[in-house]
Write a structure and sequence with these properties.
2 domains; 8-stranded mixed sheet; 15 strands; 412 residues; 18 helices; 17% strand; Rossmann fold; alpha/beta; 7-stranded parallel sheet; single chain
Length: 412
């Protein structure tokens, strides 16, 4: 094994220690091999946690083909380990171009996968729009992200989704933990690694108060930052107010913020009109899936100079004399500048992936094309296994309690 692959193996083994639910599932899936003879195409962040999922799927009978879901999130040592030691087909490298990124996705499609796991919707949307023949033979897919689920619902609405997709992101044991605690901690980790600044006393503007935004805001608040939330949803904005945060428009917040973190899944959240209002020295961070939330094109067109001042931190000197600092080229800061979500929460997310793929396999031909929720039985099973691994027990409903909950005629 090469030195790089050995480093990758150590990281995969370390992550496995924090993924007890996958370990519990492994006993059943490896024995029964529900994916025997099937090909699974994966477009995921290539990290040590992902490696543990891929190895489980392979050991459960599948032939796995893996490529990256983000050009900058790939860990090359994990690629080397999976490719050269575990003999998994992997095609990706950190820093690949957009052209290489889509070439690799098309290579996965060329293997004609029976099942798909996607993170952002690029693999699913590409196969459905470019190769209907192959897409029509897909048993089903799982989508990991909020952004991807939104895209795939739109794809289905346009009549271009040709197989069932389970919205793994919508599972409670995914978004309530992975999105909130995982994104929250890893985004702050990315900011600190890229800048080494003190967060206490800083004014941090968080755009978006979904589960990811909540996690980021809570962690920043815990580090002593003053947090301002921007939102377009009145319900989420009200929730942020009730949680103790200031809520302002981005135009108002732009004048105050020291650090700006976008977590919306939408485009043009921070644009030229906001840059013109910002302080000299503002730090720009994106924690949304795609690099479209901060208008990086404006920075490139209006810069006087640009230099890399630290790893994953670019300084833009603008034509008005202001300095802006962009983390990770505007891509996912938690995966570019840090190591992504901790294995503890990815354990639950990937358990949902594995069990949802098994569900799709068992229900082959029963589900029409469309976007489906994770069956509640799977969601609860994942939570139960996680509690079990933590040596935590909970109560069971008594027969009388169960009857009460199922009855309408037991009133006051």
């Amino acid at each position: 094994m090469t030195e790089v692959a050995e480093r990758g193996k150590l990281l995969v083994d370390w992550a496995a220690r924090e993924m007890p639910v996958l370990k519990i599932l492994r006993e059943n899936l490896v024995q029964n091999k529900p994916f025997a003879g099937l090909k699974i195409g994966c477009c995921l962040h290539i990290t040590s946690e992902t490696a543990n999922l891929v190895l489980l799927l392979r050991d459960a009978g599948a032939q796995v083909f893996l490529t990256a879901s983000n050009p900058l999130s790939t860990k090359d040592e994990i690629v080397d380990y999976l490719r050269n030691y575990e003999r998994i087909w992997v095609e990706s490298k950190k820093g690949e171009s957009t052209k290489e990124y889509y070439e690799n996705i098309r290579k996965v499609i060329s293997f004609q996968p029976d099942l798909i796991i996607d993170d952002g919707g690029d693999l699913i949307s590409t196969i459905c729009t470019e190769n209907k023949t192959i897409a029509s033979k897909v048993i089903g897919a799982c989508e990991e992200t909020t952004t991807g689920v939104i895209r795939l619902n739109s794809l289905h609405k346009d009549g271009k989704l040709y197989f069932p997709v389970i919205a793994v992101n919508n599972a409670k044991t995914k978004h309530m933990f992975d999105n909130r605690y995982g994104t929250g901690q890893s985004t702050v980790d990315g900011i600190l690694r890229a800048t080494n600044i003190l967060l206490a006393g800083k004014i941090c503007v968080v755009a978006g108060y979904g589960w990811c935004g909540k996690g980021v805001a809570q962690r920043l608040k815990g580090m002593g930052a003053k947090v301002i939330i921007t939102e377009v949803d009145p319900i989420k904005a009200l929730e942020a107010v009730m949680d103790g945060f200031e809520v302002k428009t981005m135009e108002e917040a732009a004048k105050e913020g020291d650090i700006f973190i976008t977590v919306t899944g939408n485009i043009e959240v921070i644009t030229d009109k906001h840059f013109r209002l910002m302080k000299d020295g503002a730090i720009l961070v994106n924690a949304g899936h795609f690099n479209v939330e901060i208008n990086v094109e404006y920075l490139e067109k209006n810069k006087v100079s640009k230099r890399k001042v630290r790893e994953n931190l670019d300084e833009y000197v603008m034509n008005d004399g202001k300095h802006f600092y962009l983390i990770g080229e505007g891509r996912l800061a938690n995966l570019v500048a840090a190591e992504g979500h901790p294995a503890t929460v990815m354990d639950m997310s990937f358990a949902n992936q594995a069990l949802s793929l098994e569900f799709l396999t068992k229900n082959k031909s029963k589900l029409k094309p469309g976007v489906y929720e994770v069956p509640i039985e799977i969601d609860k099973k994942v939570a139960f296994y996680k509690l079990m691994s933590m040596k935590i027990r909970i109560d069971d409903l008594t027969e009388k309690q169960q009857k009460y909950l199922e009855s309408w005629n037991l009133g006051t």
